[in-house]
Amino acid sequence: MKINMIKYKPIFENNSLMIWKMVIASSLSWEVAKLLGSHHPYLAPLTVILCVKSMVDQTITFAKNRFIGTVLGSLLIIPVYKYIDVNALTIGLLILVSCFISKWLRLDSIVIEQVALTILLVAVLEQQAGSYVFDRIRDTLVGAIFAIVINIYLFPSTYVKRMEKIYDKYQGELSTLFLHCSDWIKGGCNPENGKQMQQQLQRVSQKLLHINEDSKKISAVFHYFPLCIKKAKMLTEYAQKMDALRNGCTYLLTVTETFKEWGRSGKLNENDKIAWSKQMEIFSKHVEDFHDHSANSLYTNVVEGQQNQSYSFILIQATKRFMNSD
What we know:
mainly alpha
C-alpha cells in the first residue's frame, strides 16, 4: 500500500513560549556577560537567539555545536590573525582551510558553520578591538548555558500538559476509527471505503510515531535535570500509551485488509458481520486498555466453532496477537 507522507509539525512547537524564553535568556545572559567583564556582551544573547528552539534536545545540540565551533575556530585563527592583511583572498583561504580541518575531524555541519563564522569575525574584529576572541568564547558559553537552562526550566510542565491533550485527542480519534470499522463491516466491507479508512489509519499512525519520538527526546533530556525527573517519567508513561494507540492503528490496518478480501470473496455472512462488528465496538470502548478482560469476548466466545474458516482464523489470530501484545 502506498503511504502518503505528510508534513509533521512538532507537537511541542509553541512560538509564543519560545519568544518569552528567548527574551528572558537574552536579558540574563547579557547581564552575566557584562559582570564577567565582557567588552562584547551582545555575543551572549546572540548565542541565545540562535540556540533556543521549541525542542529542548535541539537547543542542547545547537548550543553544544556552536560552542565547539567557536572554540575550534578561535584556536585556528589565534596563531595567525596578527600576521595577515584582511582581504578577500586571506579570508577565503582561512575559511577554506579551517572548514576542511573541521570536515577532516568529522564534525557536524553546524560546527563547520560556526568555525567559519568565528574565523571571519575574529580576523576582522580582533585587530579592531582587542579581547574579542576571548569574549567570544566566554560569552558564547554564557549564552549557551542560559539558552539550555531557561528552555528547560521555564514552564517545563507545558510539555506534559501538551502531551496529555494530544493523547486525549488521538485516543478519541482511534475510538472513532474502531466504530467506523464496525459500521463498515456491517455494510459488507466495501473495498473503496476500506481503502479510505486505511489511508486515514496510516496518517494517524505516522503522527503517533512522530509524537512518540518527540516525547521520548524530551523525556531523555529531562532525566538529566533536577526538578524535571518527575515530568520525564510522566512523558515516558504517555509515550507508552501512545505506543498502545499505535498498536491499535496497526491492528486495524491488518484486519481491514483481511476484511476487504473477505468482502470481495462473497463468503462474508451475516453472523460474521455481526460478530466482528461487535468486536470492533468493544475495542472502541476499551481504547485506553485493549487488554481489559471484557474486550476479548469475540475470540473466546462469539466465534467458537469458526476456527476452520480461513478468514475468521486469520482475524482471530491477529486479534489474539494484538490483545497479548505489550
